[in-house]
Amino acid sequence: MEVIDFRSDTLTKPTPDMRAAMASAEVGDDVYGEDPTINALEQRVAAMLGKPAALLCTSGTQSNLLGILSHCQRGEEYIVGAPYHTYKYEAGGAAVLGGVVPHTVSLEADGSVAAATLRGAVKADDPHFPISRLIALENTHLGRVISQAQMWQAREVADEFGLRLHLDGARLANASVATGLSLAELAQPFDSVSLCCSKGLGAPVGSLLIGSEELIGRARRWRKMLGGGMRQAGVIAAAIDYALTHHMARLADDHTHAEGLSQQLGTRLASLAEHVQVAPAHTNMVYLNFADPQVAQQVSTAAREAGILVPASAAMRLVTHLDITSQMIEKTVDILTKVITETVQAR
Description:
The protein has about 350 residues and is an alpha/beta fold. The chain has helices spanning about 15-25, 35-50, 60-70, 85-90, 95-100, 115-120, 150-160, 170-180, 185, 215-225, 235-245, 250-270, 295-305, 325-345; strands at about 5, 55, 75-80, 100-105, 130-140, 165-170, 190-195, 205-210, 275-280, 285-290, 310, 315-320. About 45% of the residues lie in helices and about 15% in strands.
């Protein structure tokens, strides 16, 4: 049975051509700075984002953590959206390992943090308070592209209070394709950016932290301390380099597939709107919002039996990616329509 997996865009498999690039990669010891494929990738990505330097990391969690730890000292704080990945889904690493205090703030409907909210979060110079040092934002958020105007407003707040600005750009490539803005344009307001390459870009592993030479120097020391020295990791860098060359533009296909999935399911399930709402697609994500969490769980189980893998959460996220074809979208619409209709009618 064919299995179609919408749980995440991290589930992609390396293509045969990517595997060939990995197999032929020239390697050396990266801890000594002698892996030529890694060195070339870091230079390439730094240039793509318009920054002086970059550092290959094992994951987006690691690159975000290195960014925060390289900006902040113990007892200082970073201001972050409460649902953002750096706070909610990265195991509290900045607090546990760096003594950096997160100050969470609410989001606007579009997933951004308002400039007024950021201003209100900055601490006064008082020994009772942690020292505000960093603002950490995210683009995309739940698939939504955050407007560049919002990012520049955050930059103004950072400059006003002498703070630094970090971007979790796990899916910044999707934002670039969706807006037509280059990675450098999207990165311009920020002092540091984390770029994940194992999601829509389709590399098997790896993220990069991009910023100033000084920041990346500190991050390299933190990476070593955290066990992130990867030695002959040029095979990973080669996969990322291949993805940046061959998989960037094709992200538009994922966005098209997500839009088709949303539109077709929205039409087919319109009569069940009391039970499930199909949200408009944003980049490569579609959310099915179920009124009853138990229905979502039953739908997930029944869909799995039919070869469609989706989460069991009431806010059911479907993510399109490199391994999803237009034919799979059509098949998924038919199966999910049937499964959801039968599940609702059986209750």
